[in-house]
Design goal:
The complex is a heterodimer of chains A (284) and B (429). By secondary structure, chain A is mainly α. Chain A contains 12 helices and 1 strand; from the N terminus they run βαααααααααααα. Chain B folds into 3 domains: 210 residues, 3-Layer(aba) Sandwich (Rossmann fold); 40 residues, no CATH class; 125 residues, abc- transporter (atp binding component) like domain (Coagulation Factor XIII, Chain A, domain 1). Chain B has 8 helices and 18 strands. Classes of the chains: A mainly alpha (284), B alpha+beta (429). Chains A and B meet through β1 and α2 of A and β1, α1, α2, β4 and α3 of B. Chain B: One of its GO terms (molecular function) is ATP binding.
Chain lengths: 284, 429
């Protein structure tokens, strides 16, 4: 009896791959991504009184605190920019980075119940988190534009449109990729070692202080400025303010450093995530 | 001949026990150091195939060298006790866990239903959950939308579709969750023990739906259940797994029968050589009790069709006494099914023996035990030999598409007449 020639569609072996799901497979799960983003929104505002307004309250409250503490009390210079605009720009970009990173860093731990019962490309979950945060950011960004308009109309803020406005999408993309890259990297670690989630919480808070969120890079003493400049997030924050408010200390080289770092780190993390993702379900 | 749709080749799965997750950082470092820096073998992961299973205290073979093929449109059942590797196998085929060695190859889309309600969120409404759960199980938007009404109708939650599922009764929740899964249209459907939840009515519905899926639509099903009747009826072939190894593969009825036979905890007879060691008292000593099943088919399983003969012998030390023997049959829950009394016999000292046959097609399926009682002068107890025989009666239903536990303490087959006459009957004018 001859063995019939059969062409198999898929094969499961002990081998794990660095490449993960094909783009075609990811595309076939696009509705899942969409559904998860929708679910994230629904879940967050289910049974709350203020509903989606909760997207705006935390940054506004933080803004008030920063203006009072760092602006009035400590008196950190914000350059020529009004403190409100300066802080708000920093706050919304930071919270985008922070929420995206911490939201994806525990992907495996938070979704064991799902991952142990059904297969789909695991990357869908972190992608859905980033998407959700991106929408949050865009809503907060509209608020920011309103603030800018107010200062421009009534407070005599001088705005000059320049070519640097084109950096805005680049900055946003790079921040998202960096957050996702770090999230993917740490999601593998948090799956294996529970202590990593404490490290993340502490680390991300400390990271904020070496990122120009509450101070401009130009206000950092020359001696320690290299430390802040080493942080790939710094050029992104400076470029963000530069593109929107027209003030920021960043060179093309620094931005290029950030972008290159981000792409390389994201790529490596993605490979790690794919390679480890299939095996982690045994240890989570 | 249909083509193979799944090919499982020498699948093994090794699990490390104990320290996984805690304190393994040091182990991981050691592992990395040994493997990459010193170029040695993995110290924590010996793939020593010659070692018998379970040899290392911290490792366990959940599966060992399992191979089989499944043909297109075939339904394959998996039976075995808890921990035999059934679920691990299904998880490997569903791409959830990686095998340690071996390969699975297949064609077409796979959907796995390892749990009822995967991806459900209690806070969301029924409608939202149908969509998200559908996406997670691999449907796309158009498919869910097309099936939406059918899903809602199947689950019978029409009025509650926009209520958060946390306000559902558990029955509604399970029905909705299964309804989503039941309307998947994969080439291969993997189902693990989902029938354990839900009421009898729901189970019937599920099994009916699965039959429809496998027989009418020609999809391939891999099915794990502890409901042997369901495996028997639903599956063409079955595999019996024991401690990760495949013991038997073949037509489902044969495999299921062998598996059940291995499970039956029988006490079909006891014998004592001398009165001194035998149970009893100064009046009575038992010599032998025995249960003889009159099994017609070769697999040796007692099922509802099997007549059973109870035989006993005892030494009687009572002079000139009228004795009765009673056979008391209990179900495993301790309910008395019957207490059958022999006619009185005037006995001298010596051996007394007797037998009684419980006809086939009388007992319902279940586990039973028998107590023998001896009384003198019609009512004065002499001795009870408690729980001296125990046996299981397995279910057997030929060509009946009804999977629930048959009701009743007994399941007799009394003559039953049902006729149809030609007579005009008019309900409306």
């Amino acid at each position: 009896m001859s063995v019939p020639k059969v062409k198999w569609d898929w094969e499961i072996t002990s081998q794990t791959s660095y490449w993960g799901a094909s783009l075609r497979e990811l595309w076939s799960f696009r509705h899942l991504l969409e559904g998860l983003v929708k679910r994230n929104f629904l879940l967050r505002y289910q049974q709350t009184i203020l509903g989606p307004f909760w997207i705006l309250f935390p940054p506004l409250l933080t803004l008030v605190t920063y203006v009072l503490v760092f602006g009035k009390l400590v008196g950190i210079s914000t350059g020529t920019l009004p403190p409100v605009l300066f802080y708000f720009a920093g706050i919304i970009l930071w919270s985008f980075f922070n929420d995206s990173f911490t939201g994806t860093a525990t992907t495996f731990r938070d979704n064991v119940h799902l991952f142990s019962k059904v297969y789909f490309p695991r990357i869908i979950i972190p992608l859905s988190v980033i998407h959700t945060q991106l929408y949050n950011f865009l809503i907060q960004f509209l608020m920011m534009l309103l603030l800018v308009a107010y200062y421009w109309l009534f407070q005599g803020l001088r705005l000059s449109l320049s070519i640097t406005i084109l950096w805005f999408p680049l900055v946003l993309l790079a921040t998202a990729l960096l957050a996702l890259g770090m999230g993917l990297f740490f999601s593998v670690l948090t799956a294996k070692y529970r202590d990593m989630s404490y490290v993340i919480n502490l680390g991300v808070r400390l990271l904020m202080y070496v990122t120009p969120v509450i101070y401009p890079l130009s206000a950092v003493p020359e001696k320690v400025r290299w430390l802040v400049q080493l942080n790939p997030l710094s050029p992104l924050f400076e470029a963000f303010r530069l593109s929107l408010l027209g003030e920021g200390t960043v060179s093309t080289w620094q931005l290029a450093y950030s972008v290159l770092f981000t792409v390389a780190f994201f790529g490596a993390s993605l490979l790690l995530f794919n390679k480890q993702g299939d095996k982690l379900i045994d240890v989570v | 001949m249909a083509d193979n749709i799944i090919q499982v080749e020498n699948i093994s799965k090794l699990y490390r026990l104990g320290t996984i997750g805690t304190g393994s950082f040091r182990q991981d470092l050691q592992w990395w150091w040994n493997l990459y820096v010193r170029g040695r073998k993995d110290p924590f992961f010996h793939l020593d195939k010659t070692a018998p299973p379970g040899v290392a205290a911290d490792q366990i073979w959940a599966l060992r060298d399992v191979s089989f093929d499944v043909k297109q449109g075939e339904s394959m059942g998996f039976v075995g006790s808890n921990g035999s590797g059934k679920s691990t196998l299904l998880k490997i085929i569903s791409r959830i866990v990686k095998p340690t060695t071996g390969a699975v190859r297949g064609r077409g889309k796979v959907s796995s239903l390892l749990e009822v309600g995967t991806g459900f969120n209690k806070e969301l409404t029924g409608r939202e959950n149908i969509y998200i759960s559908g996406y997670i199980l691999g449907m796309n938007k158009a498919e869910v939308a097309a099936k939406f009404d059918e899903i809602v109708a199947f689950s019978g939650i029409e009025e509650f579709v926009d209520t958060p599922v946390k306000r559902y009764s558990s029955g509604m929740y399970v029905r909705l969750a299964f309804a989503v899964a039941a309307h998947l249209e994969p080439d291969i459907l993997i189902v693990d023990e989902v029938l354990a939840v839900g009421d009898a009515d729901f189970q019937k519905k599920c099994l009916g739906k699965m039959r429809e899926v496998s027989q009418a639509e020609g999809r391939t099903i891999l099915f794990v259940s502890h409901n042997m009747q369901a495996v028997n009826t639903l599956c063409d072939r079955a595999i019996w797994l024991n401690k990760g190894q495949m013991l038997e593969m073949g037509p489902s009825s044969a495999v299921v029968n062998k598996y059940i036979a291995s499970l039956q905890k029988l006490q079909l007879g006891q014998k004592w050589a001398t009165p001194q060691e035998a149970p009893g008292n100064k009046f009575i000593r038992f010599k032998q009790v025995e249960l003889i099943p009159h099994v017609e088919h070769s697999d040796g399983i007692i099922d509802v069709r099997t007549p059973l003969t109870v035989k006993f012998q005892f030494w009687n030390m009572l002079e000139e006494m009228s004795l009765n023997v009673g056979i008391v049959l209990y179900s495993y829950t301790g309910d008395c099914i019957f207490d059958l009394l022999s006619p009185a016999l005037h006995c001298h000292t010596g051996m007394v023996e007797g037998e009684c046959t419980i006809p086939g097609n009388f007992l319902n399926d279940g586990s039973y035990y028998i107590t023998l009682t001896i009384a003198k002068e019609a009512s004065i107890p002499v001795y009870n030999l408690d729980e001296c025989l125990s046996f299981d009666v397995e279910d057997y239903r030929a060509d009946i598409c009804y999977f629930e536990k048959w009701w009743g303490a007994v399941r007799p087959k009394f003559p039953f007449r049902l006729e149809n006459h030609q007579e005009v009957c008019q309900l409306s004018r």
